[in-house]
Write a structure and sequence with these properties.
The protein is an alpha/beta fold. It has a single domain, classed as Vaccinia Virus protein VP39 (Rossmann fold), CATH 3.40.50.150. The chain has 4 helices and 9 strands, in the order ββαβαβαββαβββ. Strands 5-4-3-6-7-9-8 form a 7-stranded mixed beta sheet, covered by helices on one side. A two-stranded antiparallel ribbon has the order 1-2. Strand 4, helix 3 (82-95) and strand 5 (101-104) form a beta-alpha-beta unit. The radius of gyration is 15 Å and the shape is globular. The N and C termini lie far apart (38 Å). The relative contact order is 0.16.
């Protein structure tokens, strides 16, 4: 089990699927949200009110649920694995009200085909480390206007994974935590 680390549901326990999931640690989640909140404060942007987050390769849903706990209006979760979906659904029902989340059983490496009811503050992309879908996925998100002007895209990957910046995005911040690299990207 892991805990929500901030906001209204701080310390709430989330189940973690036994296989096929590498949940983002509490330290990394704290760093991610500190960087997001600092950026929003510096730019006089309300990160959470009437905004949504997208959690691709959602797994336990810890990133999208952390956003809900901190005040986000909505989170969208994309997960393809049936067994992982069961745990994700339990976690969402524990933390969220029914009108605060939507789960799509969808391959996150493909074009995301969904209607988002709120402006998108953040997109979390945290695939299994053996995958490297970033260039194609980021290009599709840009081409489909899912990455918006104020959207921050957070990419979590192995620090040895090669990452070529997609035209139209710039790096706001980059952090390395042991074997993990986290990139914060913004639309130009």
């Amino acid at each position: 089990m892991i805990n929500i680390i901030g906001g209204k549901y701080k310390r709430a326990k989330l189940k973690v699927p036994i296989q096929n999931v590498r949940p983002t640690s509490a330290n990394k989640r704290e760093a991610i949200f500190s960087i997001l909140e600092s950026y929003a404060l510096k730019n006089s942007y309300n990160l959470y009110e009437d905004k949504c987050f997208i959690d691709l390769f959602a797994g336990s849903g810890s990133l999208g649920l952390e956003a809900i706990s901190r005040g986000s209006a909505f989170s969208y979760f994309f997960e393809i694995n049936n067994e992982v979906l069961k745990t994700l659904t339990l976690n969402c029902k524990k933390i969220c009200k029914e009108h605060q989340f939507r789960i799509y059983q969808h391959d996150s490496t493909q074009a995301i085909d969904a209607n988002f009811d709120y402006p998108i503050s953040g997109i979390f992309i945290d695939p299994p480390y053996k995958l490297n879908p970033f260039n194609n996925l980021l290009k599709k998100l840009l081409d489909n206007n899912i990455i918006q002007k104020n959207t921050i895209t957070i990419v979590e990957t192995n620090n040895k994974t090669s990452f070529e910046l997609v035209n139209g995005l710039s790096i706001l911040n980059e952090r390395v935590y042991g074997k993990t690299k986290i990139l914060f990207l913004k639309k130009n």
